[in-house]
Amino acid sequence: MPAFRRTLLLAFFILLTPATSSADDASHRPTQEQIHAYLQQQAAKLHPQHGKIVLEGGMISLTIPQDFGYLPPDEAEILIHNIWQNPPGTKTLGAIIPTTVDIASRQGWGIIIRYNGDGHVSDEDASTIDFDKLLGQMKESNASENRMRKERGYTAFDLVGWATKPRYDKETHKLYWALELQPEGGTQRSLNYHIRILGRQGYLVMSIVSAMEQLPMIEQNTDRILSFVDFNTTHRYADFNPSTDKMAAYGMAALIGGYALAKVGIFKGLILAVLALKKFLILGCLLVAAYFKKLFGRKK
Q1: pLDDT given at position 91
Q2: Is 159 left (phi over 0), alpha (psi -120 to 50) or beta?
Q3: In the list 38, 71, 145, 285, which could disulfide-bond 95, CB 3.0-4.6 Å?
């Protein structure tokens, strides 16, 4: 178990432990085995589903093979909050996890699923985006985001660069890219891998949550992951009707970077919102401690 995660969970357990004298502190601190046992108990609450699963009122279909599993929103919350130790309340359509990996271990990873119904996103600018320029703008935006994160008690992070440059399949209308990030003062880098599947009136958001060293494995599985999900007939990108359907206020560049949309009040803090899902690195121990102190302080 990585040191960061062990520290994170240590804070969690200490805050759940009644106050004692300093001499007794050590005896109340959980061992690595106790932390692992806790994570295993939480993982036992998950019941991955296989086969065809329909989401969002019949708009989206998942086809999940046996070596992966779908978690409905309530179990995705257990994964995000109880196992990955993020604050509760993340709204999702569920999650997809590999069933051949211990989800409570460092090797555990998953895909968080959400839907954005802002409207039909034009892909006309997909082939003309200057990704180096876009990355520079994202770094500038991230610098201002960091100031806001610090003010709110979050850990600041540096946007190192593309882990995978954006790629768009115009035939399937599926877009994916990855960002490499590093928490301020930390050495362990984080991977945020993003997938967008465009539909008639919005798009599916798939955020792959993993450690940086898992990038080669995820790259090998990207085509499979993309094949798990699609919009159903009448909800697909090609079904767009300009006479009746709403257009999104942004195109592909803003879908990746989010920076242009601050002007229209959409996606402000896009990276911040997505990274709230990230395990291990994005939410610091101080944030978790502050969160639980506030929670238990209200209940005292």
Answers
A1: 86
A2: beta
A3: 71
